[in-house]
Automatic annotation (TrEMBL):
GO MF annotation list: hydrolase activity
Protein name, entry field: Hydantoinase subunit beta
Hydantoinase/oxoprolinase N-terminal domain segment(s): 5-174
UniProt source species: Oceanobacillus zhaokaii
Superkingdom, natural source: Bacteria
InterPro entries reported in the protein's UniProt record: ATPase_NBD (IPR043129), Hydant_A_N (IPR008040), Hydantoinase_A (IPR002821), Oxoprolinase-like (IPR045079)
Length: 519
């Protein structure tokens, strides 16, 4: 099998593809429009990037896909699984039902089969009440033939996953292996409702992930490529197809994180702020040791509050296709709406009728693109004010992400990054590296594989050192399951937070391990 890699990233506007050699040098790159069915855009980008290079198909050993399939399915409520929601936590948690605070249409789509079962654990691992197995058998018979995915959440399962695992075994026994089962202890962190929501959303997009994976594998086969396939995940690392179909929720933010990883590689910086300018929005994130800084807050997806690993990002409604409106009195507004992938027909420089941020940059001579004579009549003084405002919006977002007043390097990537200047307030330097337009696809192609665990340990009982060693071993095990080479694993992130409100030296421990792809 060859050592060359294809990286593909599906964005809202463009599907980008790159082909890298074994030293991660870019051999060919392409941008094609994202299509309504997504798969066609992937086929086109892949075919182009291979055709444009002189690489034989046998030399391509790896293919990585960063996709928005699952996010879009949740936001648009399309193609979701028929799911059952099982919470093990009666009688303790009856006051707050599952799917509380989730938008009505999502609750209607996902809340047809909701069950509360006796069981669950205390924060220290003791059973609240024993698990009601008879009830679980009854539920399994009831949902047979009606659901194809089950979300199981038990109280304090990050401490003890016994009840969740027993429930899974019962459902497998009655329903067989065809029904996908998501366990909250494998997905979210401490905090019952947010962890439950993350698990429900995960269960709801299993089919979407399967379809995306099959489509990608078939696209490769049609091109005559026998490659190992990986998906990008939220923390900027990869996971195998099997892992991605089991945990599809971990793909929802892989676009921005791929851009951050690609920016780190292209700019040769491990600590920096990255501004990824797309067609519709700009994402601003922070690199720490070459990986995206993670958010410590709950994250809303499609209106549901969740708590699993997500990058810390600020998104602003500013991209290459953002619409600029100028009033009679010389006042103006920038966005937040955009012409998106219609830029080549809508923008003034391409003969369209809509003034966009790209037109402003071309009229001021900042960018060479399209037909500058079509914007020559515009008032330069006014456009200069608009341009300064565009830059200010980006500087504000960069400032929000900084943790100190010290200047820090800024890396500009994404197709729309050509709009921005090479000096920004608060930046020690501004780099727009070569191939920056496809940084996201490069990020997906060069990624490592990771595993992460988060658990509560009682340090009074087992001691801090032993607890951390166990956690590291578990995180490495997760990374190996996801497709990492055991010999290359390193611990890239470790944190322990004492839970002062719990006795016994209770501490939440989170560990992440990452390594190279196993050959």
């Amino acid at each position: 099998m060859g050592a060359y890699r294809i990286g593909i990233d599906v964005g809202g506007t463009h599907t980008d593809a790159v082909l890298l050699d074994q030293n991660n040098r870019v051999l060919s790159e392409t941008k094609s429009s994202t299509t309504v069915d997504v798969a066609t855009g992937i086929y086109q980008a892949m075919h182009e990037v291979i055709t444009n290079s002189d690489v034989s198909r046998e030399d391509i050993g790896y293919a990585m896909l960063g996709t928005t399939h699952c996010t879009n399915a949740i936001v648009e409520r399309k193609g979701l699984n028929n799911i059952a929601v099982v919470r093990i936590g009666a009688p303790a948690t009856l006051a707050v039902k599952p799917l509380v605070g989730v938008p009505d249409e999502l609750r209607i789509a996902l809340g047809k089969y909701v069950y509360l079962v006796r069981g669950g654990h205390e924060f220290d691992g003791r059973e609240i009440v024993s698990l009601d197995e008879a009830h679980l058998y009854q539920i399994a018979e009831e949902v047979k033939g009606h659901v194809d995915s089950i979300a199981i959440t038990s109280v304090f399962s990050p401490v003890s996953r016994d009840h969740e695992e027993r429930a899974r075994n019962i459902f497998n026994e009655v329903l067989g292996d065809e029904v996908a089962i998501s366990l909250s202890s494998e997905i979210g962190s401490v905090g019952l409702l947010e962890r439950e929501n993350a698990t429900i959303l995960n269960a709801s997009v299993v089919n979407v992930a399967k379809t995306a994976a099959d489509g990608f594998i078939n696209a490769l086969k049609n091109e005559g490529i026998e490659a190992k396939v990986f998906f990008g995940q939220n923390d900027g690392t990869l996971m195998s197809v099997d892992y991605a179909v089991k945990y599809p929720i971990f793909t929802v933010a892989c676009g921005p994180t791929n851009s951050l990883r690609g920016a780190s590689y292209l700019g040769d910086l491990s600590d920096a702020i990255v501004v990824d300018v797309g067609g519709t929005t700009s994402d601003v994130g922070v690199l720490i040791n070459s990986f995206p800084r993670e958010s410590s807050l709950e994250v809303e997806i499609g209106g549901a509050r969740t708590n699993f690993r997500m990058p810390d990002l600020v998104s602003i409604g500013l991209g290459g296709g953002t619409i600029v409106r100028i009033q009679e009195d010389g006042e103006f507004t920038i966005g937040p709406d955009s012409v998106g992938y219609h830029l080549p027909e809508k923008a003034l420089i391409f003969g369209g009728d809509t003034l966009t941020t790209t037109d402003v940059a071309v009229a001021l001579g900042k960018v060479e693109l399209g037909d500058p004579s079509k914007v020559a009549h515009l008032d330069k003084g006014l456009l200069t004010r608009v341009y300064l405002k565009i830059v200010e919006l980006v500087e504000e977002a960069v400032d929000k992400m900084k943790t100190s007043a010290e200047p820090i390097p800024v890396i500009l990537v994404g197709g729309g990054s050509i709009l921005l200047p090479t000096e920004l307030k608060g930046a020690s330097q501004v780099i727009r590296p070569e191939h920056s337009g496809v940084a996201n696809a490069i990020g997906s192609a060069i990624s490592q594989v990771s595993g992460q665990i988060e658990k509560i340990y009682l340090f009074d009982e087992i001691g801090r050192e032993d607890a951390l060693e166990w956690a590291k071993a578990e995180a490495k095990g997760e990374a190996i399951n996801a497709g990492a080479d055991p010999d290359s694993l390193v611990i890239v992130d470790i944190e322990d937070v004492p839970l002062a409100y719990l006795p016994g030296g209770a501490t939440r421990v989170r560990v992440k391990a990452a390594g190279e792809l196993s050959q």
